[in-house]
Design goal:
single chain; 226 residues; alpha/beta; Rossmann fold; Arc Repressor Mutant, subunit A; 2 domains; five-stranded parallel β-sheet; four-stranded antiparallel β-sheet; 8 helices
Length: 226
């Protein structure tokens, strides 16, 4: 899942990025609304985390314009404005949830997951195909009920493939979901992650496998039986 974080407090932004990344999210963080607009024009985000007091404008006014443009991306406002009037205004303007600073990281993550589980959203708690499962909350991968090690990038890759099991996922989609703007990505990074994940699944006797569709992307499907 790829998240856009709009927060101008550097320390808080860094803490939020770290917590979100450890929970399996790919995060692009910016400190201004103009940067947020440029990012949204480039990437299809699953969720936006929005501060309201930003150096180039008020996040509430931006949110109103954002909703007028028919953008349906879930927006979680995270702000120090904690009064009842502020909270009501935020929700009425188009926020899907409203979190008052200071907050605990666990609560932020829980609210993110709750928004992404709503009807029409993109997050189910447990994904499975064949004997392979991924718990999207704990990031635990298991084959036939037995946990297997999967570093963050491989778990993220597996999540995208599981959500489109049986379909070819273009490499551009995978790269967009796995890597943020600030990530240092080598030209063959995706291939390396696919190769390692493929080997892990084979070693664990998973009855699904990853197939390369040359020039297009990758496909996760059940292994054919005799």
């Amino acid at each position: 899942m790829r998240v856009l974080l709009v927060e101008d407090n550097e320390r808080l932004s860094s803490l939020m990025q770290g917590g979100l990344a450890r929970a399996g999210f790919t995060v692009d963080a910016f400190a201004s609304l103009i940067e947020a607009d440029a990012a949204i024009a480039t990437v299809d985000y699953d969720l936006i985390l929005l501060d309201l007091g930003l150096p180039d404008g008020d996040g509430l006014h931006w949110l109103k314009q954002f909703r007028r443009s028919k953008q349906g991306i879930p927006v979680l406002v995270a702000t120090a404005r904690g009064g009842l009037t502020d909270r009501v205004a935020g929700l009425d303007t188009g926020a899907d949830d409203y979190l008052v600073k200071p907050f605990e990281m666990d609560e932020l993550l829980a609210r993110c997951r709750a928004l992404l589980r709503r009807p029409g959203a993109c997050l189910s708690t447990v994904l499975s195909t064949g004997n392979l499962t991924l718990d999207t909350v704990s990031r635990q991968v298991a084959v036939a009920g037995n946990p297997i090690e999967a570093p963050r990038r491989e778990a993220d890759l597996l999540e995208v493939l599981l959500r489109r099991s049986g379909q070819v996922v273009p490499r551009t989609v995978l790269e967009e979901r796995l890597y943020g703007f600030d990530d240092d990505v080598t030209p063959n990074a995706l291939e390396a992650h696919v190769s390692r994940l493929h080997r892990r699944l084979n070693d664990a006797a998973a009855d699904v496998s990853i197939h390369t569709v040359r020039g297009v992307g990758y496909l996760l499907r059940l292994t054919a039986t005799p």
